[in-house]
């Protein structure tokens, strides 16, 4: 809880948070930088504020850059951000992409991977789970947008599998940013049944209780709470990823610092998404 409070203070004061122990160990020559941004970067009614995003990336890089490479300093940062559709599709940002131009919502998908320096991988979330991956031997990185549909349909599995296909034996660490926590994520019985249909093991990640004065046999009066981040962690562990860092910040409970799709709908507010980003120097 103390770490979560520190991370939340960082978002409020700086506009972003960095997971303290993430991307500190690597065998590649280029350091990795990352940031889980607050609500100052993107509103749904406006374009992504690339200037702010790039400024944050530069700040994170200066903090993390223990092995400066002057020739890379001269190359402009660029951003890759997909048109997210709650799918299990992974896009490899390889040589076919122009390293110097921004690639914003041109292609559909919900995860990106790359080993291209100075190319930021970004995902937008507002309750869904932002997951950043770092393969410590090769330096490959990935960014995943994991909503419940994408998580249950295999977006995490597909991303990690693609890394294995490219790199071979992997040593991957993961970081999970702010997202909706179980206590704030009440769902319907139909949602619960749909999750069980897609993945019978998902039952483990639901908490249930009866509404006040409801009879035990009355299914319609049951309250279901889904633990989406715990489900995502389970998916990562199923792919043999054991080093998993978490911010443990609830988007719904912190509307001043973070966007929450559920909070926005319930309070009739302007919609928006925060951005999570990872890049190679």
TL;DR?
This protein has 281 residues and is α/β, with parallel strands linked by helices.
Structural class from helices and strands?
Answer: alpha/beta
Distance from N terminus to C terminus (CA atoms, Å) equals 31 Å
Shape: globular
User: How large a portion of the residues is in β-strands, by DSSP E?
Assistant: 25-35%
Mean pLDDT: 87
- The low-confidence runs, each spanning 5 or more residues with pLDDT under 50, are 64-68
Number of strands: 15
What share of the residues lie within helices?
25-40%
Query: Nearest-angstrom radius of gyration?
Result: 19 Å
Order of helices and strands: HEEHHEEEEEEEHHEEHEEHEHE
What can be said about the biggest beta sheet?
6 strands, mixed
Write the layout of secondary structure elements.
Elements: H1 2-14, E1 16-17, E2 32-37, H2 50-64, H3 70-73, E3 78-83, E4 90-92, E5 103-108, E6 111-114, E7 119-125, E8 129-135, E9 141-146, H4 148-153, H5 155-167, E10 172-176, E11 186-187, H6 189-198, E12 206-210, E13 222-226, H7 228-238, E14 243-246, H8 261-267, E15 274-280
Parallel strand pairs: 3-5, 3-7, 4-6, 10-14
Antiparallel strand pairs: 1-2, 2-15, 6-9, 7-15, 8-9, 8-10, 11-13, 12-13
């Amino acid at each position: 809880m103390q770490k979560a409070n520190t991370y939340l203070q960082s978002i409020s004061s700086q506009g972003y948070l960095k997971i303290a122990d993430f991307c500190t160990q690597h065998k590649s020559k280029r350091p990795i930088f990352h940031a889980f941004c607050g609500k100052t970067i993107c509103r749904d009614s406006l374009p992504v504020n690339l200037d702010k995003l790039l400024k944050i990336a530069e700040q994170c890089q200066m903090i993390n850059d223990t092995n400066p490479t002057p020739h890379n300093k001269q190359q402009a940062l660029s951003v890759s951000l997909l048109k997210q559709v709650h799918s299990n599709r992974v896009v490899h940002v390889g040589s076919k992409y122009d390293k110097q131009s921004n690639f914003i919502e041109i292609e559909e998908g919900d995860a990106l991977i790359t080993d291209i320096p100075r190319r930021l991988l970004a995902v937008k979330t507002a309750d869904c789970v932002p997951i950043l991956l770092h393969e410590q031997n090769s330096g490959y990185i990935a960014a995943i947008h994991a909503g419940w549909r994408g998580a249950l349909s295999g977006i995490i599995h597909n991303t990690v599998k693609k890394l294995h296909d490219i790199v071979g034996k992997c040593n991957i660490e993961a970081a999970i940013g702010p997202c909706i926590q179980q206590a704030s994520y009440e769902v319907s019985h139909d949602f619960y049944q749909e999750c069980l249909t897609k993945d019978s093991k998902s039952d483990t990640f639901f908490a249930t209780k009866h509404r006040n004065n409801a009879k035990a046999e009355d299914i319609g009066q049951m309250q279901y709470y889904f633990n989406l981040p715990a489900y995502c962690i389970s998916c990562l562990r199923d792919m043999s990823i054991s080093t998993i860092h978490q911010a443990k910040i609830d988007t719904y409970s912190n509307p001043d610092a973070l966007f929450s799709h559920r909070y926005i709908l319930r309070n009739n507010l302007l919609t928006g998404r925060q951005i999570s980003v990872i890049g190679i120097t």
